[in-house]
């Protein structure tokens, strides 16, 4: 059975998320461009790109989604020990390019990645424009973990994370949760639910619930200094 999808070339081409397919879950349209304007409009409407390098750009808005509610996430006992040791330096937006490139590297259980050179360039451009941000975890000045995503208003949309040292990506996540909670972000969107995210404390939320948060918080103002490059290692006590 063939599926007819709308071609998305301009921001106004995006259909409503409510028009997404049930199978494949959340598929909404396709295109061939990843401009800043398209990406910003997509996230503003609760839509994100996800595709393999050999494919067109596919746009998604699944139901349900996964999200970390920032006032409900607590580290496990074992994770608390790691956080309290202060073995890592944690920073924001100091090594964005390195973080996204590390997230794209093949690993043992993921020999290929959806983060293509095109995606890397697109999100680097979003970073330069002030929309894409990274959390970096370093050890002796070596980058050993981190994550990146998009922020609109008081919402953070997580894209990917990586680690080169045990627990480094989890440390990045817990600092991001603290950072977002401090600035009154209700949740961190994780897009597609999976067992790993749920084991870390993510919850499944319906598309309707997700959109209600999106419409409430996407136009909120945040202090400019929130996403300035900075060290936040000592900001929180766990």
Summarize the structure.
This protein has 238 residues and is α+β, with helices and mostly antiparallel strands. It contains seven helices and eleven strands. The protein has helices spanning 36-44, 77-85, 96-103, 117-128, 168-182, 195-199, 207-217; strands at residues 27-31, 48-49, 57-60, 65-69, 89-92, 132-139, 142-152, 155-163, 187-191, 203-205, 230-231.
Gap between N and C termini: 53 Å
CATH class of the largest domain: Alpha Beta
Please state the CA-atom Rg, rounded to the nearest Å. Answer: 17 Å
If strands are numbered along the chain, what order do they take across the biggest sheet? 10-4-9-8-7-6-5-11
Biggest sheet architecture: 8 strands, mixed
Using the 3D structure, state the CATH architecture of the largest domain: 3-Layer(aba) Sandwich
Give the topology string: H per helix, E per strand: EHEEEHEHHEEEHEHEHE
Helix content: 25-40%
Structural class: alpha+beta
Strand count: 11
- Spans of 5+ residues with little confidence (pLDDT < 50)? none
Mean pLDDT: 95
What percentage of amino acids are in beta strands? Answer: 15-25%
Assigned CATH superfamily of the largest domain: Leucyl/phenylalanyl-tRNA-protein transferase, C-terminal domain
The number of distinct structural domains comes to: 2
Helix count from the secondary structure assignment: 7
Q: What is the name of the CATH topology of the largest domain?
A: Aminopeptidase
Shape: globular
Q: What features would you highlight for this structure?
A:
three-stranded antiparallel beta sheet, Aminopeptidase, 24% strand, Alpha-Beta Plaits, globular, 7 helices, 238 residues, alpha+beta, eight-stranded mixed beta sheet
């Amino acid at each position: 059975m063939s599926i007819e999808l709308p071609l998305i070339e301009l921001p106004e081409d995006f259909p409503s998320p409510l028009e997404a397919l049930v199978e494949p879950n959340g598929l909404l349209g396709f295109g061939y461009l990843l401009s800043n304007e398209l990406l910003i409009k997509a996230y503003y409407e609760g839509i994100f790109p996800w595709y393999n390098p050999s494919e067109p750009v596919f746009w998604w808005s699944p139901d349900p989604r996964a999200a970390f509610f920032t006032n409900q996430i607590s580290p496990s006992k074992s994770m608390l020990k790691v956080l309290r040791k202060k073995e890592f330096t944690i920073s924001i937006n100091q090594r964005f390019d390195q973080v996204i490139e590390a997230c794209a590297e093949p690993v043992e259980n993921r020999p290929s990645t959806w983060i293509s050179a095109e995606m890397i360039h697109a999100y680097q451009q979003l970073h330069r424009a002030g929309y894409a941000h990274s959390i970096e975890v370093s050890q002796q000045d070596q980058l050993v973990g981190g994550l990146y995503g998009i922020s609109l208003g008081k919402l953070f949309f997580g894209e990917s994370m990586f680690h080169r040292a045990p627990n480094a990506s989890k440390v990045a996540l817990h600092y991001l949760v603290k950072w977002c909670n401090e600035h009154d972000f209700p949740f961190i969107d994780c897009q597609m639910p999976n067992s790993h995210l749920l084991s870390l404390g993510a919850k499944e939320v319906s598309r309707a619930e997700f959109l209600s948060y999106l419409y409430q918080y996407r136009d909120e103002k945040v202090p400019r200094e929130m996403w300035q490059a900075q060290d936040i290692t000592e900001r929180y006590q766990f």
